[in-house]
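Onboarding guide, step 5: your first structure request.
Type a short instruction followed by the sequence, for example:

Predict the 3D structure of this protein.
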Amino acid sequence: GRAEVGNVVLARQGGTELPPPGPWTIDPAHSTVGAVAQHLGITSVHGRFLEFGGRVEIAEDVEKSRVEAVIRSASIDTGNGMRDGHLKSPDFLDVEQYPEITYRSSGLTPAGADRWTVHGELGMHGVVRPVDLELSYLGTGADPWGGTRAAFRATTELRREDFAMNYNQVVQAGISAIGTTLRVELDIQAVQGESLPG
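The system replies with structure tokens like these:
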């Protein structure tokens, strides 16, 4: 089955311009793909994926712009080796069976004077679902290497059960060890062109 997880919302701070049309390549060295989960209902556990890549195609007709990204699921890092091992296991990401997490946009519609909704699908743990991101376009500028960069920030909330990750442990009084939702936080720099410099 399919569940509506949502849309991507693009917003430009201080204007409605998007980056110049053409291909843009995500720079993993200057980007972060992070996630935050609740632990025992009182604290947050922060993690990030260290290996990922992708491209954005800005179209002359903005509504036809596209984005594709691939994340290596085994690159999860929460700062705790035992926890990371559990997250890579069949209880969660099952990285042997599903080595990649993918995102592909499927359309873009305006959502106000300076906002757009990008419709896309996230593939994770063998399940593909529509996703809801709130994405801010932070601007475009020159870099020290002669290139042009665009910056974006995006957040979304995913339900683990929508991606068939149902493992949990009830510790007491109905409190789960791990929250049912996962907050995803993306800080992305993209370089203009088909590939990264160097």
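Each response can be followed by summary notes, for example: Residues 7-192 form a domain with the Lipocalin fold (CATH 2.40.128.110).
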